[in-house]
Amino acid sequence: MSVMDNYILQVHGLQVTFTDIERNEIHVVDGVSFSIKQGETLALVGESGCGKSVTSLALLRLLDGNGRIRGGNVLWQGRDILSLPLREVRSLRGREIAMVFQEPSSALNPVYTIGDQITESMLRHQKVSPAQAKKQAEEMLRLVGIPEPRKRLEEYPHALSGGMKQRAMIAMALSCRPRLLIADEPTTSLDVTIQAQILELIKELQKRFHMAILLITHDLGIVANMADRILIMYAGKVVEEGNKQDIFRRAAHPYTRGLLNSIPRMDQAKGTFASIPGTVPDPAHFPEGCRFHNRCGEFTETCLSEPGKIHLENEHFVLCHYPLGQKTLGCRAK
Amino acid sequence: MFFYIARRLLFLPLTLFGISLIIFFMFMRLSPEQRVALYITSPERLRGDNVERLIDLHGLRDPWHIQYGRWMGNVVRGNLGWSNVGKEPVYSAIMRRFPYTLELALYSALPIIWLGTWLGTLSALYHNRPLDHTLRISAVVGWSFPDFVFGFFVLMIFYSILGWFPPGTLGAEADAVVKSSQFRSFTGMVTIDSLLNGRLDVFIDTARRLAGPVLTLTYVGFAYILRIARSSMLEVLGREYIRTARSKGLEEKVVINKHARRNAMIPVATVSGQTIIALLGGTVIVETIFNRVGIGSFMATAAQQLDFASVIGGSLFFGVILVLGNLLVDVSYALIDPRVRLD
Question: Where are the beta strands (DSSP E) in chain B?
């Protein structure tokens, strides 16, 4: 089996635009490409506003309002999701590719019971009777560690705590045994202790169901714990890609370095807290050339031109004129 | 759910007590000579020093709590005083007219709520497209139309020109039938009673006369519900649980009709309740324009002719309707939204 065959999802040159009030098209996601292998966890990392959530929604064509996919393709088992009829996309959603969202309190419908919301996708995608679906839902709740699952099925979301709601959400997403789980900041809204439990749960279920995970997060601690491979996104583009060791040990993009340096450490002197100067640019006014140039310590005039994708080693790629720590490339002549 | 309703019902007497106090104290602002009107059934009884004797007889100069107790005792027994306008006791004057108003209110409330909700949803789904604009314009026009203007248009078109919907409550023939001894009154609402008596001709007569006022109230009223339903639906469609529902692969029909609709109905239930309550108490103008018997036109006449007994009795009656109406709205909340049942 060749390497290519292992990919369950391949995204090529994804372009997403939003239209603002003055009807200008704003490129929020600009030529994003990546692939996910069967059973692996790919982390999509970036500051808020860099386009990572939009990317994940675009994969299942769930963008609402004025978001439009302007180009690229999303291959799922050889078929391009972006050009399939919507009816077929719907049959993929929840069955083959499922999603878990950031805020379980708002992602669950307040006026239907947990049981109703879990059985709903089973009844939609599988040939099961309502009674069977209910039994399976109870099983799922037990699997995600919710005590008294039978009782919980009859309860409404407001009766559950945040962590329990997220467990129910995961049970719902996994009810049809998807092959890919898209988890968009699944623990951001939870307490730190609950975060760890939920992440452990996701890892455990991943092993059990052999599913791949696209984990969207801005938390590098979670990435270190969960990811096999990492994509770093900045201002609508993937700026660095590699496996966990590549990124954490040999980060090449100044932005990735900046992110890693901004993780607070126990051995750090009091009061010093590294951060990247400036803020993520507004998608309506992305800088010319390298989009990070106005915040970058390595800036030269070359950076005003578009950088190309550089292959560093194995699966390690970077989008930068001056990748750090790559002396062999030695083009830092000034 | 059961406890929720039970608790609501426990508060009911308390609210009614408050309403009666407010009405009583407003009444007490009048002089004893004015208040004695409650007991005067004919001008004959006002001769000589009879007024003073009646004031003493009914204790209208007693301390207020004694008077309140005596008045409340009468009210509880259904004795609301004598109506000068109706030439009958206030209680029976109200009870005889109420079914006509109830009939009009119910037949208007149904299309108002149904049309408002349906078109409001449609408007939200076609957000900023031609259908949405058309519906919103028609809603604004309906909303801004005073009912007396639109009522006259309806009379002009459907009565003067087309001759379909005559004004009044009942035609002479139908009125004779209803008043005859063979016609049994079950509900007091002629549309229902006529069918129960098997008198289709009476039914058609009363239905034709109802059509004009119903049309007027519907057009003026549905706009408000439409606007609430539209904005509420738009808000709900942007919620995360709608995205969750789509991410599960549900059909758009299920997403809208199940996941969005029920959440969007919560504010609609409030305004629907208000609309029904307003219809029950405030169809004065439409009843007057279409020359209908009803509690609205009765109250208006009573107020004009300083018929205190009828005004007070009517106020109490509307108070009860308001409280019961709000109770129904609260119950409908609890039916729609499980979070309400908790507190």
Answer: 82-83, 88-89
Domains of chain B: which residue ranges?
Answer: 88-341
Q: Which of B241, B248, B259 sits opposite A121 (nearest CB)?
A: B248
On the 0-12 / 13-18 / 19+ scale of CB atoms within 10 A, B7 is exposed
In angstroms, what separates the C-alpha of A107 from chain B's closest C-alpha?
4
CB A286 within 8 A of CB A27: yes
Q: How many helices and strands in chain A, by DSSP H and E?
A: 11, 12
- Contact predicate B244/A107, CB 8 Å: yes
Which of A89, A109, A121 should be substituted to probe chain B, the one whose Cβ sees the most B Cβ atoms within 10 Å? A109
Q: pLDDT tens digits, residue range B9-59?
A: 888 888 888 988 998 888 888 888 878 877 777 777 777 777 788 888 878
Cα(B324)–Cα(B12) distance, integer angstroms? 8
pLDDT digits (tens, 9 = 90+) for B154-199: 888 988 889 888 888 787 777 777 777 777 777 778 888 888 877 8
**What fold is seen in the domain B88-341?**
MetI-like fold (1.10.3720)
The span from the CA of A156 to the CA of B341, in Å, is 11
Question: A106 and B245 in contact by Cβ < 8 A?
Answer: no
Please determine, for the modelled complex, whether the ipTM score is greater than 0.90. Answer: no
CA distance A159 to chain B (A): 9
